[in-house]
Design goal:
Structural class: alpha/beta
Order of helices and strands: HEEEHEHEHHEHHEHEH
Strand content: 15-25%
Shape: globular
Radius of gyration: 17 Å
Largest sheet: 8 strands, mixed
Oligomer: single chain
Strand order of the largest sheet: 1-2-4-3-5-6-7-8
Helix content: 25-40%
Number of helices: 9
Distance between the termini: 43 Å
Length: about 260
């Protein structure tokens, strides 16, 4: 069975092609507005994409929120999402956004290790405060994987306050039946190894799985599978689809932001 259509988003969202340029423009405007409180391209590794941006609040940070972008491990970087820092910054939290290498240049397990490396580096850059993680789509898979005790050292894992996988890929086995797997190069073993639903020994951070009510059935299923596997809280956001489900991160008064910084 070919699942390409089941995991297609843009074809089912009106004006889908307008979202990426709008994200990029909003992100650039935000970075330009923040001036000295915007620290860009801080290295966490040796690769060209092993960089994160750090946005600082006025005064000492109360915590640090790390946002990991999506794009099915195939597209985007940190530069399209900077504006989503607005909500947490308004509550006095620092916000960090890493880039990572993309498939097919690397495998998903390589990306997972890169994000873990970034989280550890970010924790050192903003020490002694709680850490909240959220990621969108493929980024949802990546932040969920950060609760793996084999990936993150205890001195960082113990600081993890809450993890919010937004519209996550939680079980990667169905993706074996998509054409995307030509670039992922997964087999059953690697898909299971990178599937959050299979994780057992996790750090005890709070977890809320977040998904838009107007998403494709496959993404509603993925969110449900993770919530069930982890006995996690589960929010289905009214009126949201796969592309606008992250918009509340830019709203200091949104339920999503309050959950991250409370």
């Amino acid at each position: 069975m070919d699942l390409d259509d089941a995991y297609a988003n843009g074809a089912y969202i009106a004006g889908a092609e307008d979202y990426p340029p709008r994200w990029a423009a909003s992100a650039e405007d935000f970075r330009n507005s923040l001036h000295e409180r915007s620290r860009l391209d801080i290295p966490y590794g040796d690769g060209a994409r092993h960089r994160f941006d750090l946005f600082l609040p006025e005064g000492a940070p109360k915590g640090v929120f790390v946002f990991v972008h999506g794009g099915y491990w195939l597209a985007f970087d940190k530069s399209s999402w900077s504006h989503l820092a607005v909500g947490a910054l308004a509550h006095g939290w620092a916000v960090a956004m890493p880039s990572y290498d993309l498939c097919p240049d690397v495998r998903i397990e390589d990306i997972t290790r890169q994000v873990a490396q970034a989280v550890v580096r970010i924790a050192a850059e903003v020490p002694d405060v709680p850490i909240s993680l959220a990621g969108h789509s493929a980024g949802g898979q990546l932040v969920a994987r950060m609760l793996d005790k084999d990936l993150i050292p205890a001195e960082v894992g113990d600081r993890l306050k809450i993890v919010i996988p937004i519209s996550p890929l939680a079980d990667l086995l169905p993706l074996l039946r998509t054409s995307m797997n030509d670039k992922f190069q997964m087999d059953c073993n690697s898909a299971r190894a990178e599937s959050p639903v299979e994780m057992q020994d996790r750090y005890p951070a709070g977890v809320t799985v977040w998904v838009g009510a107007e998403e494709r059935p496959s993404f509603l299923d993925q969110a449900q599978w993770l919530a069930d596997a982890w006995q996690a809280d589960h929010v289905i956001a009214f009126g949201k689809h796969h592309f606008n489900v992250v918009d509340p991160l830019a709203d200091p008064e949104s339920d999503l932001v309050r959950l991250l910084v409370s």
